[in-house]
Design brief:
Layout: H1 8-18, E1 23-27, H2 30-38, E2 49-53, H3 58-61, H4 64-74, E3 79-83, H5 97-102, E4 106-109, H6 113-122, E5 127-132, H7 139-152, E6 157-161, H8 166-174, E7 183-186, H9 188-194, H10 200-204, E8 209-212, H11 217-233, E9 238-240, H12 252-261, E10 262-269, E11 273-282, H13 291-295, H14 310-314, H15 346-353
Parallel strand pairs: 1-2, 1-7, 3-4, 3-5, 5-6, 7-8, 8-9
Antiparallel strand pairs: 10-11
Helix pairs in contact: 1-11, 2-15, 7-12
Length: 363
């Protein structure tokens, strides 16, 4: 579907005509990763353009220690663990939520934080813990539900708050000399909430081109063309090429809700390490809904699965086929790492759209 008014073939030709040297861009959003593969866009890129995938999959960047904390909570008696479906099969150090459910744990798949709160209301005799993952896209919904729980005095509901903020991770990636990123294709969904200004430091301080793009073929190609033009003119900026969804100011009401409920804390990301002030945590009166505090569980560092290269893939240092486990011991049917589990994971996208990794895909 064409949404920007531009023809993808025309945009592809413009890309090839405009690029004048090798450039490396990173698409930050997992939905972009999947959309690019699904629509076969890599075949439309100029030879000099290298596009690498970043840490845009919230399931994938959830650290091993955070997964283990979720498993410890789910194993407790009289707890209902409510989780998004993508988290169900992510391997922890000792199994997954799906395996715990098979052993009798009360793990339920929900599609929203509101659905998790409804489980708590309908089961007042049991504690319901919502596994809150995601970036600024899903964090506002968690904040709103917690405000509802506070007003209704629902005391058997809590949140394992693993939400993360995207801009601090982009700073970490921009400072990585091994990547030498020329530009970021910024996430559309997160930017609906944040708007434009939270990314401004990338252009002003770090001289990196930034373009916010939608998810259709013409949206993505238009965003890439904008990045090439910024680099070629040596005028890095933060521009929205997705005006039908992203307003310059974002969504102030959603941000206000997050600001009321969440504080910011240092948080470990898979592959990126501990990033200062990149995690949302429950502050002040909202800490009564913190599942870690309520049940005496802590998040501790845990090593990734042996041989799994998810960390390097999320950092953009490797493409999925370069992982020694990819398509062999690690497949969607038997995943070793989260990048092969999530529908937005780079490994899952490479596997699905490249016939199990056997077909060559130019990067």
């Amino acid at each position: 579907m064409r949404r920007s008014g531009y023809d993808p073939e025309t945009l592809s030709e413009a890309l090839k005509a405009t690029i004048d040297r090798p450039l490396t861009f990173m698409e930050v959003c997992g939905t972009h990763t999947v959309s690019i593969f699904r629509q076969g866009l890599r075949s439309m890129f100029p030879e000099q353009l290298r596009l690498i995938s970043g840490p845009g999959c919230p399931v994938c960047v959830t650290s091993q220690g955070e997964i283990d904390a979720a498993l410890r909570l789910a194993a407790k008696d009289d707890i209902v663990m409510a989780t998004y479906g993508d988290m169900l099969r992510v391997p922890g150090s000792s199994g997954s939520l799906q395996e715990q459910r098979a052993l009798g744990a009360n793990v339920r798949v929900v599609t929203s934080a509101a659905e998790a709160l409804d489980i708590a209301v309908r089961n007042p005799e049991r504690e319901t813990v919502f596994l809150g993952v995601g970036f600024e896209t899903t964090a506002p919904a968690t904040a709103v539900v917690l405000e509802q729980a506070m007003r209704a005095d629902i005391r058997n509901f809590s949140v394992l708050c693993l939400h993360k903020a995207v801009p601090p991770a982009l700073r970490t990636l921009a400072c990585d000399p091994e990547l030498a990123i020329d530009g970021f294709l910024l996430p559309g969904h997160v930017s609906v909430i944040l708007g434009v200004e939270p990314y401004r430091f990338l252009a002003d301080e770090m001289h990196i081109a930034c373009s916010i793009a939608g998810f259709e073929a013409d949206d993505i190609l238009l965003g890439l063309l904008d990045l090439v033009r910024q680099v070629r003119t040596d005028r890095p900026d933060v521009r929205s090429m997705y005006p039908r969804a992203v307003r310059p100011e974002g969504n102030p009401l959603a941000r206000e809700s997050m600001d009321r409920v969440f504080g910011r804390t240092d948080r470990e990301w898979r592959g990126l390490g501990v990033i200062p002030l990149s995690g949302f945590d429950l502050q002040g009166e909202w800490s009564q809904f913190d599942a870690l505090e309520r049940f005496g569980v802590s998040v501790t560092h845990a090593p990734p699965p042996p041989g799994c290269a998810c960390g390097d893939i999320l950092r953009g240092r490797l493409d999925p086929p370069e992982c020694p486990l990819f398509g062999k011991t690690c497949t969607p049917a038997s995943p070793v790492g989260p990048c092969m589990v999530s529908g937005e994971g780079s490994c899952a996208a490479w596997y699905r759209y490249n016939k199990g990794g056997n077909a060559q895909c130019r990067i």
